[in-house]
Monomeric form sarcosine oxidase (Medicago truncatula), 390 residues
Amino acid sequence: MEDSQFDVIIVGAGVMGSSTAYQAAKRGLKTLLLEQFDFLHHRGSSHGESRTIRATYIQNHYYPMVMESYKLWKEAQAQVGYNVYFKAQHLDMGPFNDPVVHSVVENCRKHKIPHQLLNHQQVAEKFSGKFNLPANWVGLSTEYGGILKPTKATAMFQTLAYKNGAVLKDNTKVTDIKNDGGVVVFTANGEKFRGKKCVVTVGAWANKLVKRISGVEIPIKPVETHVCYWRIKKGHEGKFVIGGDFPTFASFGKAYVYGTPVLEYPGLIKAAVHGGRLCDPDKRPWGSVVMMNELKEWVEGIFGGVVDSSEPVVKQSCMYSMTPDEDFVIDFLGGEFGKNVVLGVGFSGHGFKMAPVIGKILTQLVVDGETNEVDLKHFRIGRFQMASKI
Ligand SMILES: Cc1cc2nc3c(=O)[nH]c(=O)nc-3n(C[C@H](O)[C@H](O)[C@H](O)COP(=O)(O)OP(=O)(O)OC[C@H]3O[C@@H](n4cnc5c(N)ncnc54)[C@H](O)[C@@H]3O)c2cc1C
């Protein structure tokens, strides 16, 4: 395969690279997907058992991307023949005067997302007492929630990419990308691949690789974070399972807590803090959970004592790649590479749900040089003040 010519070389086979490989191969491009570790490894951002999909956002631009993704998740499932999406309602909650809660409600109104704004008693009634909100909190309930299975979904995109003719290669770390009118991609194994275009979807390694190839420092910070699962007390397990009325949820109080109905581990409910500690993705600390006391307090209070808040039973470590404004980076690298290198990075802990549309957008940028899915101004690298050598 050495020195082979591809239409597009995709670097990084997390969910974003895998979804892009599927979309590119489906559009008939000769596609190569390269991954530094084993496929479906647990050292990046796309592994594990559950991710939330929800339509409620404080920013305007994500709603159409989420809605297109719901459609594309279902199409991909139909192609592969198994499910990675499991339907649930979604509940956002927080103090009634919290600006985030206000923005989310505003956005629901703006996009005409059917929703119910509920006081704490109405939340208790709607969800049969499963959420015990403080008296000054409100809940925002919508039908647009659900769980995605991350490892399975990433595998699904890789399978579909392969079925559509893509070449997939793991244990192949990209060390450099050079411009020769197209791109030449160099690997740590001493291989060299030529492509007309290249898509960089390297998650928390974005800053390292982009700096190496272009000298540009994009301000994407790798953050180690944790998912926690808590034991539901005896006799209450059935209340929290997927398929009933228990929703995916996000809570905007002292800590931003999120979670999903019981699906992956019977008897355990997921509740975790959106946050973590800066890390080097190549020297992971495998450290402790941040804001554990706040999380325990939340589990005890909001679940009204029916979930054991003494310690999480399962903790899983994962990485975010955070931009300063938590918006994604979807753009051409520019400089000497012009439109030949496309970046899809900085998904800031909330990208999984939109992986199908992101794969579609990145492929449009490769093939068409533009996208009609979203206004890219929210995702341009030019929005950051950057140190640059070029
Ligand atoms: C705990 C946790 C909970 C989350 N919850 C949600 C949620 O509920 N809803 C939601 O929508 N999103 C959620 N997210 C965010 C979502 O999972 C990420 O946005 C998404 O997985 C990012 O995928 P990625 O492909 O960009 O990164 P990754 O999955 O990290 O993939 C990047 C890949 O590039 C490879 N790579 C890096 N450098 C090189 C190189 N030089 N050569 C070759 N390969 C390379 C890496 O090994 C890696 O496999 C969560 C994330 C975490 C960690």
